[in-house]
């Protein structure tokens, strides 16, 4: 393929389909969790340990994905990860043993981790050849997939479709998305691939600016995870919001984030990565402050909107910067940065719970707000990497 082959509508479409399939597959699992708990007959503590297997599988698979992409290209790795997620879904809807469910979640998580890294490496190359921001739009399709997956699976289950049948229907749709993407995905080796005859190491330790980018991703993912797992409790316990309405906070956050990402490419092109990091971080911090301090419940809900709008394009800018830095080969850097970021998603809910147990949930969110200060403070170094974008 020619050097400009990544800069084609078909290739950009394939990248969007990969992100859509990943978001859809992951979110299909959420409505199945209550059915899995009932089928296995476990309590919440045991279920929590089982769910940890998904995160462990993801983080464990990520470091090995970059060498696989370097040796074979991202196309087979994307398709393999997507196929693994699709085939694991029906297993998650039918397995009735603890050991079997643990293995299925590990496979599902490992497939997710593989797909996540490979599609972001692919997206970095596509964006680099296009020479204009595309990453926010790609991640926006992941969010759209999340809405469609959870909503579609919930609708199927609500209309009386058996969990196993709903899982197979969802898996079939994922396979269709992968089939549409397959012929359009890049067949060349991604940037940073090993030279001919040179074998990429199985694991590369992140270094230099990649460590900072990973920490910033960790903080952002931790914020998203905290709102998902603890946002409703913060509203019910400290804002006297009725449990039936507490889910509105995260819904508003998700709506703002999805809208922000779908329009984010134009925003990044107009403002540059440095300003997006700066003002996005400031908006996220302000939103957290509103949620924590506002005595008026409607204003607290507005804080969730502000957090979603501010955080929407932080991770896409970080992925773009990871692809442009020159300290590490981009494929290996994306894998390392993603693994660090997902560590926040994996361990974050437990950390928030530990702090909340000792000092209260508002104290945990106050610490999270303080950690978010690193994002706008790091806008300068991240913006310098983001050279192709107007960052004056």
Automatic annotation (TrEMBL):
Keyword annotations: Membrane, Transmembrane, Transmembrane helix
Membrane topology according to the record: Multi-pass membrane protein
CDD domains (alphabetical): MFS_MosC_like (cd17393)
Pfam families: MFS_1
Ranges that cross the membrane: 48-70, 77-95, 101-119, 140-159, 165-186, 207-227, 247-264, 276-293, 299-319, 331-352, 358-377
SUPFAM superfamilies per the UniProt record, alphabetical: MFS general substrate transporter
GO-annotated cellular components: membrane
Residue ranges of domain Major facilitator superfamily (MFS) profile in the record: 11-387
Keyword Transmembrane helix set for record: yes
Annotated protein name in UniProt: Sugar phosphate permease
């Amino acid at each position: 393929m020619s050097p400009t082959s990544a800069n084609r509508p078909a290739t950009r479409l394939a990248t969007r389909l990969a992100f859509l399939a990943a978001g859809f597959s992951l979110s299909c699992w959420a409505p199945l969790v209550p059915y899995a708990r009932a089928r296995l007959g476990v309590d919440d503590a045991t279920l929590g340990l089982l769910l940890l297997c998904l995160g462990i599988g993801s983080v464990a698979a990520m470091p090995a994905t970059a060498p696989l992409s370097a040796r074979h290209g991202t196309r087979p790795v994307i398709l393999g990860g997507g196929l693994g997620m699709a085939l694991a879904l029906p297993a998650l809807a039918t397995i009735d043993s603890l050991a079997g469910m643990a293995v299925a979640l590990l496979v599902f998580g490992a497939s997710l981790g593989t797909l996540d890294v490979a599609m972001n490496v692919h997206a970095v190359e596509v964006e680099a050849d296009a020479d204009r921001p595309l990453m926010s739009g790609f991640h926006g399709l992941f969010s759209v997939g999340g809405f469609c997956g959870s909503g579609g699976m919930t609708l199927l289950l609500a209309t009386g479709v058996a969990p196993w049948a709903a899982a197979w229907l969802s898996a079939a749709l994922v396979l269709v998305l992968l089939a549409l993407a397959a012929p359009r995905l890049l067949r060349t080796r991604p940037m940073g691939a090993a030279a001919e005859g040179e074998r990429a190491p199985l694991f590369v330790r992140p270094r230099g600016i990649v460590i900072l980018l990973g920490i910033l991703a960790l903080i952002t993912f931790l914020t998203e995870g905290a709102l998902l797992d603890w946002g409703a409790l913060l509203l019910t316990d400290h804002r006297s919001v009725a449990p039936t309405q507490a889910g509105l906070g995260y819904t508003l956050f998700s709506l703002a984030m999805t809208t922000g990402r779908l329009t984010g490419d134009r925003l990044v092109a107009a403002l540059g990565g440095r300003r997006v990091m700066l003002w996005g971080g400031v908006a996220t911090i302000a939103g957290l402050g509103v949620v924590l301090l506002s005595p008026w419940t409607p204003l607290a809900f507005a804080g969730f909107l502000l957090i979603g709008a501010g955080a929407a394009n932080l991770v896409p800018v970080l992925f773009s910067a990871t692809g442009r830095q020159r300290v590490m080969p981009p494929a290996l850097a994306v894998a390392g940065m993603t693994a660090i970021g997902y560590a926040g998603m994996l361990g974050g809910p437990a950390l928030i719970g530990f702090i909340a147990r000792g000092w209260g949930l508002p104290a945990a969110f106050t610490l999270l707000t303080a950690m978010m200060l690193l994002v706008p403070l790091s806008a300068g170094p991240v913006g310098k990497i983001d050279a192709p974008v107007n960052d004056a």
